[in-house]
Predict the 3D structure of the following.
Amino acid sequence: MRTEFLVFGSPYFGPEEEEEVLDSMRRSWIGTGPKVKLFETAFAQYKNIPYSAAVHSCTAALHLSCLALGLKPGDEVITTAMTFCATVNAIIHAGATPVLADIDPVTLNIDPEDIERKVTPRTRAVLIVHFAGRPCKMDEILAVASRHHLYVIEDCAHALETEYHGQKAGTLGDIGCFSFYATKNISTGEGGMAITHKSEWIQAIKIMALHGLSADAWQRFSDKGYKHYFMTELGFKYNMMDLQAAMGIHQIKKIDLFWQRRSQIWQFYMDRLKSLPVGLPAPVDPGSKHAYHLFTIEIDPSKAGVSRDRFLEEMTKRKIGVGVHYCAIPEHPYYQKRFGWRSEDFVHAARYGSQTVSIPISPKLTDRDLEDVVEAVSDILSS
Ligand SMILES: *Cc1c(COP(=O)(O)O)cnc(C)c1O
């Protein structure tokens, strides 16, 4: 057995990131500054889209996207029952009302037919998640949205490299939001980005991310001389720092390298776990690119002979870090109390959420680490 604990989803930094962070510290410009601008430009280039705004988290990007689109109290936003709570909370913080749709049990993505069923005269937007990095059925979703005049926000926290029919995730809907949290495909510790084709929305996001101050207020202390600034909106403190962007501008150059390793790991697990009594991810659609953010296996106790929660404990005992992505949204007591959501009404999300386990998939993993993961899984299932 391993002697060292294998951390789930650990980020992968090199000397380039280290040097760049030190450079910011030595220059004493650590807050929002030129490196944030560089990171925004590099990200927009990667996505081949004109506008980008770096913020402190994907949650902030989602929240500000809702506000930039003008969502307000009384408006309904349809989102998926299988996601991280931040997706749903962004809608609530914007003052709108979240409405859940169930998932497709094979792709684990929001079911376009259930979106259609949940549309009411108050629906203004859909907030979709490309789950684990697999693109949603965007043709169907965009068709529903256009029939009912709805905005589409893409939560791309899992979907940095994702493509759908040759188009990059985050550029298909109205605004795309990305995360650079520690476990995501590239990381700045905490961090997020919003991208869009519309300059008006990105301007709104940038202003709201810095207290609602007039644009470029961050330059007020620069060598160009002191500038007065005025508040035009009631904004938030959501700006990204240069310290974060220092990591980002080097991480973004490594996207393809990281993705290739994730892709290898994915194939390795598919191959080595296929004869075991666990559910494996559906094959990747031809014509789409999976970001391989999560590798999730399903532990059905009647087949695996062990409960999901027991399996989590046993993996931890064998020094393998695991995750659960996620317990279904209606399982959270807060939402039950506030919206009256019940798991029984979202059968696919509830079943998946009760059986899923994420095993490590990160470019930092060595071949030896991967053997240890497979060995631990086999060992638990055969005992
Ligand atoms: C991680 C994550 C978020 C939140 O990202 P932060 O950058 O941590 O705010 C939102 N949605 C999904 C699906 C996520 O996985």
